């Protein structure tokens, strides 16, 4: 009888260990499947065929753009109000700090451009902005209105990087 109880206890603990390991495996598999289905690397998030990441380290606009390029992207460009709200959401855990995105002023052409080369059509400038002068880079979350402001590029801010999702199957 004691042998039967011991065998039952051993089998039960093996089942529990296996179930626990299976639960961990299933959790990891779900996480992996989600990352694979979105196409975004770890810590990046998906929105509208792009991956985005908030970079809390303060850098100049140029340093932030180079940092984004080192991760395969650019500072984020914004093409709709929904996309802007999504990018702002990424900054919400950091008290909506003033943050670099990819807008830069091309002085000779007198136009704003996105660092990723996409068209600069959607804007969310604060009243009176862009104010010009030596302010050629775009920060978001300016004033309580959380609108856009042009700023000197050498000032340090956190940033949001973005990259297009590359398709794995051609």
Automatic annotation (TrEMBL):
Gene3D superfamilies found in the cross-reference section: Mannose-Binding Protein A, subunit A
Swiss-Prot/TrEMBL keywords: Disulfide bond, Signal
Domain of life from the UniProt record: Eukaryota
Keyword Disulfide bond appears in the UniProt entry: yes
Pfam families: Lectin_C (PF00059)
All residue ranges annotated as the C-type lectin domain in the record: 47-162
Record flagged with keyword rRNA-binding: no
SUPFAM superfamilies: C-type lectin-like
Signal sequence coordinates: 1-19
PANTHER family found in the cross-reference section: MANNOSE, PHOSPHOLIPASE, LECTIN RECEPTOR RELATED
Record's protein name: C-type lectin domain-containing protein
Native species: Maylandia zebra
């Amino acid at each position: 009888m004691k042998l039967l109880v011991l065998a039952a206890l051993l089998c039960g603990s093996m089942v529990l260990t296996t179930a626990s390991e299976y639960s961990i495996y299933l959790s990891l598999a779900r996480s992996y499947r989600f990352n694979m289905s979105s196409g975004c690397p770890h810590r990046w998030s998906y929105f509208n065929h792009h991956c985005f990441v908030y970079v809390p380290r303060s850098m100049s606009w140029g340093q932030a753009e180079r940092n984004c390029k080192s991760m395969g992207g650019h500072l984020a460009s914004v093409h709709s109000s929904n996309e802007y709200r999504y990018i702002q959401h990424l900054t919400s855990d950091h008290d909506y700090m003033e943050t670099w995105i990819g807008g830069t002023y091309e002085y000779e052409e007198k136009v704003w451009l996105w660092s990723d080369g996409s068209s600069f059509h959607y804007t969310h400038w604060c009243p009176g902005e862009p104010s010009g002068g030596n302010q050629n880079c775009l920060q978001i979350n300016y004033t309580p209105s959380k609108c856009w402001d042009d700023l000197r590029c050498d000032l340090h801010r956190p940033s949001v990087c973005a990259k297009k999702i590359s398709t794995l199957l051609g």
